Fold each of these.
Amino acid sequence: MTLTADDILDRCRSEWLFRDLPEAEVDDMVAELRDHLDDASGAGRPAAAVVGEDLNAFASAWAAERRAERPRRRTPRQLALHAYSGAAALLLGHHLVGWSARVDVVPGSVAAIGLFAALMSCTPYWRALLHWPLGRWMALCFGFSALLLALFLVGGAPVLFSVPLWGTALFCLPAFAVAAASRLRPSPDQTFTG
């Protein structure tokens, strides 16, 4: 089966996203590959002359090369940001769903926030889920089941501390401030001419 240039670009893009490359970098790689494919098409060569016979191996090798060019040092920062967002979601969710003015934080809640932060920081998010083989899905389901059982057995005892509604609002205030500032700040693409 002969793949069109658009098929090649789509498959490479999904492979690069699966490899957890940043989207801006993936867009650059897609543009560069599009140029190479257009050049090959203009010269009368097939797309296989550019990418080879094994498209996944080509995309994986290119992703590994790009990853080797830039060391990944964002994980501790991402871990902290994901833990913060997980804690904020847990607190807000408890206030909204339980209609309570106070949230009791128990060890199970802390473990759930830690698991959320670790999964979100160390996996390529939802992009990888669609490409996982059955064995990984089964391991993930078994692991989550074991974790939920452990959290259930820990239960609501002991209460580590309680957070009032105003404490949750104060905890979420920095996130709201950052979101508002990022919306008000002009993007780097916008240029103002006087």
Amino acid sequence: MTNQIGQLSTIPPKQRSEEAIKAFMKNKKDIPIEAFKGGFILTKVANPWSTGDLRLINTNVEDNPAVTFNYFSHPSDLQRCVEGIQLVTKVVQSQHFTNLTMCVRETTEQLLNSTVKANVNLIPKHVNDTKSLEQFCKDTVITIWHYHGGCHVGKVVDSDHKVLGVNRLRVIDGSTFTESPGTNPQATVMMMGRYMGLKILRNRLGKFGGV
């Protein structure tokens, strides 16, 4: 997935038709040039209470699994998103921020409308997106690339990252995270891989292995 297309992960794979992708790309091209001279301030709902599911649809490794995200299925997650949007809006509308950016102070509706027009995902938008923060959160939700949680410890792998019920197979990557680090997880994943690699070698070679 490229930045030009954006994220299609919030829409089930079977709904990602060629027409939908073309329409999404067209909307991206219609974004005002001013949008590329700034950026987005996001609110992150960390450690969400909402849960989804990931299932294999068959044994063909080339086929994508069935994924249901269930964003905001728990009301507390939606409330946290609303509070985050309120805080971001307050910051962007502050005198300090407008002085720094040398931009005219926009209303809350104008700020929200800019995000809705940016078309960050393929979720159908609603006419009350800028009136209801709850609806705004639901319609503009995205997962920022750092996917994790598909192989939870205790559910898919054990504490040594061995896949339950399968011999000679481990999973040591971000899919075992219950929560992704607040920054780019690359260093955390590399550290975990090195730690588990050394642990495996020490278990196999013993204390005289020099590892």
Amino acid sequence: MAHPFPDTTATDDTEESSDEGRHHDLLDHVGDWGPVPTPAGLFQLVPVRVERDLPLLSRWMNDPAVAAFWELSGPPAVTADHVRAQLTCDGRSVPCVGVLEGTPMSYWEIYRADLDPLARHYPVRPHDTGLHLLIGAGGDRGRGLGGTLLRAVADLALDRRPASARVIAEPDLRNIPSVTAFLRAGFRFSAEIDLPGKRAALMVRDRSLRHLL
């Protein structure tokens, strides 16, 4: 069954939608960043709505390749709790579905790295923007799509967030395909850092270097 995204600009009267609209200012209204052309097609970040997106997100989280790093496998309530924790906080993290050519195919978390616990583990700068990504379908992995979309979203964040001088990511060092995708997307490897539950590669895409990498 097709996943419904009839109108990504529509609003409704749910409390969840109200929370999203009220809090997105910490990240310059991710839901309004709009579509961006990529070599793979037109891509857009659509902020998550639990009632609409939970079945798809939970299915992705139960893929063993995803579960090994996200650790959100199990009943849908596990994923729902993870997403709702972001939707009901102060807006420092915005969960999104990545829609490519009209098809939802990835899950993203756009977050304020300078306001995140991550800030205790690296030389933070004000308004650093963080990214988490998973590619949903196995058939979309291993063919360079992750790097293409990471570059597009990182550059979109720099375009839409003029106060942010860089985009930060912290993939697990064991996740070689993820680290490779960030490198292909123009991120530079900055350091190895110890985070709760993992040793991570600190990856950085600098505004000042974006046209060189």
